[in-house]
Amino acid sequence: MEKKHLNTKEYLWVALIFWSASFTAMEAPFSFVFKTKIQFWQLIVDGLISIFFILDLLYHLKEAKDAKKSSDFTPKKKKWISLILLLVDILSCIPFDLLSHFLGHQDLFTAFRFLRMIRIIKVYYLIENITIVPKIFKIQSIAIACLMVVNWIACGWIFIYPMGADTDVTTYYIKSFYWALTTLTTIGYGDITPHDNIGRIFTCLIMIIGVGMYGVVIGNISRMLASADRYKELSREKISDLVMFMKHYNVPEKLQKAAINHYGHLYSKRLSDNDEKIIADLPHALQHEMQIYMKIKLISSIPIFHNCGHKCLKDISTRLEQIYSSPGDLIIKIGDIGTEMFILAHGNVDVILESGERIATLHDGQIFGEVALLKETNRTANVQSQTYCDLYKLTKASFDEIIKNYPDLLSTIEATTRRRSTDKKS
Ligand code: CMP
Fold it and tell me: How many folded domains does the chain comprise?
């Protein structure tokens, strides 16, 4: 099965179906073994779950139809499995509690409700095939799966040893649940024991399942914890390699600190050392599209580009080159010929006059180096990195072409420059 990517609404919908299927999977065996009379709230819940299942079925039928339209290849051997699953899906949509309430035959309808339990397998299968499963979803599905298994085993015990007249449903269920849990975890206090062969065979079976379940649950939880810390672990590993390297070469302490801080900055910002590396395995064309999209996203949040349309943003983005600078780096030197302008994506830079006076500090989303390009003069100030900076560079040729095609943008940039020169004078 191909991995599916869900949006927020689809996640919420899967969660709703998951909870509905889980509820039925727990409640159906309980009602079956205790033969409890259907309560009013159960009728309401039963009706609601039926509605959710019908909507889900319709959604999946539409999805399957659309998928068929877009591809004429359907694996033949899977057709009969799909038909059986479809039949189970249709049957599980029927509100059996409501039917038994109005038509009687509760035993027959309760047995039919077990069909709904098959849905839980489908939901878990779906969750397994989602590309990114939110952590809350994973925790929930493990917890509910454990609860469900213990509940089924408790109900199995109640089926073998039905409740006597001297006790009530709650007490007997709790007792059975307790037995199931202590047997499954192989703790087995021995205060509740099977007293015939069927009970003993059932207990043996549960102990064997318990050992397997332990492995699955522990494995899943440790996998989840390991992946939660993956990026931190990666950054720690990289930094410790770097520290060892620098110690080996006796790198001065100041330089060591700067290098470590640089990694710290990259990891805290993007959880990886480089955006480019994350998308490096994608096909070239897709990688290129992704880079442009990332740049469009970045520059569209910058005030001077607020009024630019998508085409203009795309034109600028395709021409931008990403560079980095460290604290103290001189990005622009006063008096030099201006060959490019810069967009400060992240970090702070100081604008310093020849006298050493700092006239401005620019932050995320501001541009600099535009004056020399616009006025065709030499650089009017030094620009020095105050922190680690992520910058985008636009060459003079690209700048000229952009402002020729988008004169509105030229006026916005000119307005910024005018404001800056007034600031300088005052
Ligand atoms: P440019 O002259 O090409 O190179 C130095 C840059 O510093 C200049 O373009 C402006 O982008 C920037 N700059 C100059 N003066 C100020 C100011 N007062 N406020 C903010 N930025 C400035």
Answer: 3
User: 419 and 357, same structural domain?
Assistant: yes
Last residue of a domain, one of 218, 253, 276: 276
Which tens digits make up the pLDDT trace of 320-350? 998 888 889 999 999 999 999 999 988 899 9
Nearest to 49 by CA among 130, 142, 129, 120: 120
Query: Is any atom of ligand 1 closer than 6 Å to the C-beta of 332?
Result: yes
Res 394 pLDDT > 90:
yes
- 352 C-alpha to center of ligand 1: Å? 9
CATH code for the domain in which residue 372 is found = 2.60.120.10
pLDDT digits (tens, 9 = 90+) for 355-377: 999 999 999 889 999 999 998 89
Token pair 């003069």 in the structure block, residue: 377
Instruction: Determine the pLDDT at residue 381.
Output: 95
51 Cβ closer than 6 Å to some ligand 1 atom: no
pLDDT bracket for residue 271 (50, 70, 90): very low
> Which residue type does 371 have?
V
Q: Which residues contact 224 (CB under 8 A, 6 or more apart)?
A: 135, 138, 139
C-alpha distances in angstroms, 367 versus 105, 315, 391? 76, 17, 9
User: Does a structural domain hold residue 8?
Assistant: yes
Domain extent, residue 262, equals 231-276
Looking at the domain assignment, is residue 183 inside a domain? no
Same domain, 284 and 419: yes
117 or 158: which leads in pLDDT = 158
Give the number of the atom of ligand 1 that is nearest the alpha carbon of residue 382. 5
What residue type is 261 in one-letter code?
N
* Residue 368, ligand 1, Cβ within 6 A: yes
In a domain, residue 385? The reply is yes
Which one, of 124, 126, 119, 86, lies nearest residue 2 by Cα?
Answer: 126
